Amino acid sequence: MGTSYRDNPSCHHVPNLITGSTDGFGLCVAQKLIQKGHTVYLHARSAQRAQAAENACPGAAGTFMPDSALPMQVFVNVLAPHILTCLMHKPKRLIYISSKLHKQGQPANMEDLFWARRGEDQWNDFASYCDTKLQVNLLANAVAKRWKGLASVTTVHPGWVATKLGGQEAPDRLEDGVETYVKHAEGDYGQGLTAAYFEPRGKLGEQLAAAGDEGLQERVVALLEEKTGLKIPA
Predict the structure, then answer these.
(1) Which residues are catalytic?
(2) What are the beta bridge partners of residue 16?
(3) Known InterPro entries for this protein (predicted)?
(4) Which fold has domain 2-228?
């Protein structure tokens, strides 16, 4: 997830908060934006990881989020973006990091968003990843509907590349995903688009049809609001 704020309408460079920024795509994007003169805030799950990320990216400011009792993949991919969306000042641009694997997510699993019913015995990393990325698209599309005309809200699939998550057999280029991140952070895309989904190199993609279901969008928002006690600002 990334956000861009415009403090001064006449200034090209804007502050950016980048989550998932301790390595991989997020760290590369932070380094690129700092080179371009932007103010960048990094995010990590512990103070130690935040410091390591800051050391790897001089000129950025580090923040951290404590561990949660919820499944970490669900917390990082869905709950944390919801919390940040609710607590931040409305940005000019809001970019949620999705995946093409959202198309393998199961809408039927929405009611067990936090795995309370299935439990640890039925936990499956891949199935959870696909589900959480579909849930991110649903969240993003719900926010886009609420903030239409006030902020540009998009989802991005950065590509399957050789990061710790992607593994060494991944076929895509890191540079293509980073290019998409940077273009969105700087507003170099059609910002009149609402709830748009982008693929590497800024290519406009097609979401799973279920991601456009307003009933599912509102259900995931309701579950997140119930869990956190936070509501998306009007």
Answers:
(1) 129, 133
(2) 4, 40
(3) NAD(P)-bd_dom_sf
(4) Rossmann fold (3.40.50)
